[in-house]
Specification:
The chain has 190 residues and is an alpha+beta fold. It contains 6 helices and 7 strands, in the order ααβαββαββααββ. Helices cover 58% and strands 19% of the residues. Helix 2 (42-73) packs parallel to helix 6, helix 4 (110-128) runs antiparallel to helix 5 (149-155) and helix 4 runs antiparallel to helix 6 (163-174).
Length: 190
């Protein structure tokens, strides 16, 4: 009975993610159109920009939730490609996240791993209240530091207070990797 209930819940969340995309696209599209028209007073244009940004953030959250349901239901199909682990770790797009070391070429869902590592680093920054974090790469093994006690359980997914980190752990596990805590570092094996 519990497995059936879990499957129904996963299906419900998956359907909700799918159904949310249309109204969300309408909101984002309307905001972009209003901004591009250039006819709004400065204050209203700024508000429309905030609406557009919020729609983008909600879209990213819906995407993360949709990915989690695909992983949980066994419907996730990785887009495999070759990538270098140092390049993947160093491409978060956040100037507070650094990468150093020696990478290795692996076959994985490169974009998903990139987003997952970025989410783990962001969780370490946000919940640890630190100014910067560094990925140290040794082939397939990556360590993220510092991961302060306030952020540790969030980064490894034991304390579900950060959707990005939680889904990142699910994704890395699904791709055959692992995320573990070692002192004030998080170790990721790809």
């Amino acid at each position: 009975m519990a497995a059936e209930s879990g499957a129904r819940f996963t299906s419900a969340v998956s359907l909700a993610c799918h159904d949310l995309r249309t109204p969300l696209a309408t909101i984002g599209g309307f905001a972009k159109t209003m901004i591009r028209a250039g006819e709004l007073p400065e204050r209203e244009e700024r508000f429309m920009g905030m609406v557009d940004e919020a729609a983008s953030q909600i879209g990213a959250l819906v995407d993360q939730l949709g990915l989690a349901t695909r992983i949980e239901s066994g419907r996730y199909e990785p887009a495999l490609a070759e990538g270098d682990t140092l390049d993947i770790a160093g491409s978060s797009g956040d100037e507070r996240v650094f990468a150093e070391g020696v990478g290795a070429t692996i076959e994985t869902d490169v974009e998903l791993v990139r987003r997952s590592l970025a989410a783990l680093a962001l969780a370490a920054l946000r919940h640890g209240q630190v100014d910067a974090v560094t990925w140290t790469v040794e082939g397939r093994d990556l360590t993220l530091a510092p991961v302060l006690p306030a952020a540790a359980l969030v980064v490894v997914g034991s304390s579900p207070r950060d959707l990005g980190a939680l889904v990142a752990g699910m994704a890395i596990d699904c791709l055959g990797g692992a995320v573990a805590l070692e002192g004030e570092t998080a170790r990721v094996r790809l």
